[in-house]
Amino acid sequence: MTTTLQHPVRPAPAGRATPHKVLAKAGLYVFLLANAAFVTYLFNAAGVGSNKLVNFGRLAGLYGALAMAFQLLLVARLPWLDRRLGMDKLTSWHRWVGFTIFFTLMGHLVFIAFGNAGDEGPIAEVIRQATELEGILRALVAWAIIMVVGIVSARFARRRMAYETWHFIHLYTYVAIFLAFSHQVAVGSTFRKSALATGYWWGLWAFALGSVLIGRVVLPFYRNWKHQFHVAAVVPEAHNVVSVYIEGKDLDQLGAKAGQFFLWRFLTKDRWWQANPFSLSAAPNGKYLRLTAKALGTGSADIRNIKVGTRVFAEGPYGAFTTMHQTKPNALLVAGGVGVTPVRALLEEIKGHVVVLYRVSDPREAVLLRELEGLARAKGAVLRLVTGSSKTITANGPLLGPENIAALVPDVQDRDVFICGPGGMTGTVIQSLDELGVPSNQIHAERFALAN
């Protein structure tokens, strides 16, 4: 039974981020601002020349180097940051820091070239320095790589390029960072001016590169060595959906939470190189991990053919789509399409009274529906299957519009809302929640976006 809203909903006061997110964001801001201030101090302590263009160029280069180190921290996939901010938020920061690097390094080259240019012009000056000074050629190669990566990362180029091609080009950023650092060591006047400056820059780069090494290499290999993941069962859920059960040693010590995802590599001769991000479709129980995949592409379609006993290399757990960020006693879970997998896991773990809105175009597409129904009965939750096309108009307006959501969940303002589904659906639901006055700190949505 549904009811129609009789009065427009007045927006509730905007909520602040959860304490965990506030702490993580504050930590990143403090780290960045404190280092920017110290870099500026070191620049001034090294002595400022009379050529303003060269000064601007030197300072832009230092800020670009700092941004590179900060970028490494963002892509390190450190558990403390990832569980508080989520990989999609870190990827968003990664994108903006990437463009900051693009423009600071462009300013570094242009200001110094024009500042030192004689009668022959800035291009001739760049060529002269590249042929006469140690480290300049390495810097130019690094600059060219950063420019290419920045251009292909722009939306107009990214949309026209296959993900694999973009990813391969993006990996050259690590080469650029190495070349830029070697340039800084060779000719950086601020780097070499004092023991304090030298120690600072070596320490900063060691911290940034160490973070990547720990988060991207040491932790994944240690976890896989410790837990020895392997396929225990492959269970068809529908004609195009399959669940894979992963067993291993001491899984109760893995620290995974419902709502998180892993990057899964099934170590067969034709799949070992391919990593797929799949959410846990059941809450971790210390005995097994379960993923549920729909045949949306070649990689996920082939999973149904994985043999029992196949070794698995799993990177994770990743994501902030967990009960860690719950602020209210009760919750609303909104799932769409394959986004039902983390929602199903959350329903198993989340506390309080829960309402689940499961959005599908056709009831026959409702994957894991029987499991959701069983969990809902066991927990006293309310499960509502919301069916129809995106253009469906109900008695209360659009299917996922504010009036219909309020009719389905009258106390939505007093609940945390966890949303997982296609981008368009997620955006529509968030907009409706905003119109209903649900505070922003009660809205939790995460997309699988990976910073490289």
Give the secondary structure arrangement, pairings included.
Elements (H helix, E strand, L loop, with lengths): L18 H27 L6 H24 L3 H7 L1 H30 L5 H11 L3 H18 L1 H4 L4 H8 L1 H16 L1 H5 L1 H33 L2 E9 L2 E7 L13 E6 L9 E4 L9 E6 L3 H4 L10 E7 L11 E7 L3 H10 L4 E7 L8 H11 L2 E6 L5 E2 L2 E2 L3 H7 L6 E6 L2 H14 L6 E3 L7
Parallel strand pairs: 7-8, 7-12, 8-9, 12-13
Antiparallel strand pairs: 1-2, 2-5, 3-4, 3-6, 10-11
Helix-strand string: HHHHHHHHHHHEEEEEHEEHEHEEEHEHE
The outline comes out as elongated
Radius of gyration: 26 Å
Proportion of residues in β-strands: 15-25%
Oligomer: single chain
Largest sheet: 5 strands, parallel
Task: Determine the mean pLDDT.
Answer: 86
Number of helices: 16
Concise synopsis of the structure shown:
The chain has helices spanning 19-45, 52-75, 79-85, 87-116, 122-132, 136-153, 155-158, 163-170, 172-187, 189-193, 195-227, 298-301, 340-349, 369-379, 402-408, 423-436; strands spanning 230-238, 241-247, 261-266, 276-279, 289-294, 312-318, 330-336, 354-360, 382-387, 393-394, 397-398, 415-420, 443-445. With 452 residues, the chain is an alpha/beta fold.
Describe what this molecule looks like in 3D:
Keywords: 2Fe-2S, FAD, Flavoprotein, Iron, Iron-sulfur, Membrane, Metal-binding, Oxidoreductase, Transmembrane, Transmembrane helix. Pfam families: FAD_binding_8 (PF08022), Ferric_reduct (PF01794). It is found in: Membrane. With 452 residues, this protein is α/β, with parallel strands linked by helices. The chain has 16 helices and 13 strands. It has helices spanning 19-45, 52-75, 79-85, 87-116, 122-132, 136-153, 155-158, 163-170, 172-187, 189-193, 195-227, 298-301, 340-349, 369-379, 402-408, 423-436, and strands at 230-238, 241-247, 261-266, 276-279, 289-294, 312-318, 330-336, 354-360, 382-387, 393-394, 397-398, 415-420, 443-445. The strands form 4 sheets. A 5-stranded parallel β-sheet has the order 9-8-7-12-13, sandwiched between helices. Helix 16 links the parallel strand 12 (415-420) and strand 13. The chain starts with 18 loop residues before the first helix and ends in a 7-residue tail after the last strand. Residues 1-16 have low confidence and may be disordered.
